[in-house]
Predict the structure.
Amino acid sequence: YYYYEVKSSDLNNYDYYYNYAIQNKIISEKDKHPELKVTRQEAAKMIVKAMKVGFVADLSNLYVVPFKDAKIIPAEYKGYVVIISELKVIPAASGYFNPKSYVTKGSAASM
């Protein structure tokens, strides 16, 4: 994991965080929408990219998606969802990943 020191003056400056995420290829400029909610599959992709293993997740043919809702997980998210679930950062519930559900503040705090 990479340690990144946040200055207190940056805490309320979302542009600062977006710029950091864009520079580090966690998201692209077109993904910068602070007013929108984040789905579980989007959160999985961002976290895996932040861990610097997105290139492995992009090899989606390597992964068997074990979830009951696997058919609704787009191919572009498949590797990210499997990795993040196996690491228990965003776990499945009762066999479902619920990729289109939104991340809550509570679930974000545990990631």
Remarks:
- Helices lie at 14-23, 40-50, 54-57, 75-86, 105-109.
- The chain has a mean pLDDT of 86.
- The chain is about 40% helix and 0% strand.
- The longest helix spans residues 75-86.
